[in-house]
Amino acid sequence: MKKSVYSRPNRPMFIPVQRRNSWAIPEVREIQEPLMIDRASECHVTPADVAARMVDYLGRPGDFNTLEPSAGTGALVSALLERGHSPNEICAVERHHKLARTVRRLGVAVFEECSLEHAERVRGRVEFPRIIMNPPFSQVRRHMKAALSLLGRNGHHAPARLVALVPVTFEHKDAETIEVLPEDTFSTCRVRTKVVRIAAC
Fold first, then answer.
1. Across the beta sheet with 175-180, what order do the strands follow?
2. Helix axes 48-58, 75-82, angle to 10 degrees
3. pLDDT 10s digit of each residue in the chain, 201 long?
4. Nearest-angstrom CA–CA distance, 161 and 101
5. pLDDT by residue (tens digit) across 123-156?
C-alpha cells in the first residue's frame, strides 16, 4: 500500500467543541433545503447593498402599507425589515411556491399568484402608499403599469412612492432616475439596470 494513503490532508484534523452541562438540552434548529431558483422565474436577486439603498429611497418607516409585487427570494422584503419597517405593513406577491415559502419565513403576508393577476384582482379596493420592486425585465412595462395602478396615498398626506430596479431602457414620464447600476450587478443576466422613483400626489 502506498505511503501517500496515510498522508495528512491539508486541513485541520479537529473541530471546536463547545462545553456544556450533561443535562443541557441542545438547541433544535430547522434544517432548510437549498433554494434552487428556476431560470423561467426570471428571478434576478437584488444585491443586499442595492436593496438597502432602494429602501432608503422609498422613505422613512411609518404606518405605510408597502407592496413588494415581485418578491422572489425576499431580498427587498429583508431590506425593509432591516430598516425598521413593520412586517405587519408589508404585502408580498410571489407566484413560485418555493420562493413564496422562503419569503413567508420572514414573517410577512405573501400572496402566491402572478403580480399582474394580483393587481387585477385588488385594483380599486386597495391602495399602497409605498411600493418597492425588482420586476421581471422581459415584461417590465406590464409589471410597472400594474404596480402603478395600485399606488395611492391611502389617506396619508405624504405623496405615494414607488421605487423600482429596471432596465436602463425603461422610460416613464414621471420616473426619476436615482442611480444607474454597474454592469456586473447581476451575474445571471447581461441587462444594464437603474433604480427609478415615481411619486404620485
1. 109-111, 90-93, 66-68, 130-133, 160-167, 193-200, 175-180
2. 60
3. 444 433 444 544 444 544 545 444 344 344 344 444 445 446 689 999 999 999 999 999 988 999 999 999 999 999 999 999 999 999 999 999 999 999 999 999 999 999 999 999 999 999 999 999 999 999 999 999 999 999 999 888 899 999 999 999 999 999 999 999 999 898 777 889 999 999 987
4. 27
5. 999 999 999 999 999 999 999 999 999 999 988 8
Q: In the beta sheet, which residues pair with residue 180?
A: 194
Asked whether 73 and 99 are in contact (CB, 8 A), the reply is yes
Q: What is the CATH number of domain 43-200?
A: 3.40.50.150
pTM higher than 0.85: no
For residues 143 and 35, what is the distance between their CA atoms, to the nearest angstrom? Answer: 25
Residue ranges per structural domain of the chain: 43-200
| CB atoms inside a 10 Å sphere around CB 134 | 29
Distances (CA, A) of 6 to 3, 9, 11, 39: 6, 9, 14, 44
Q: What is the Cα–Cα distance from 77 to 101, expressed in whole angstroms?
A: 13
Handedness of CA 113, 115, 119, 120 (dihedral sign): negative
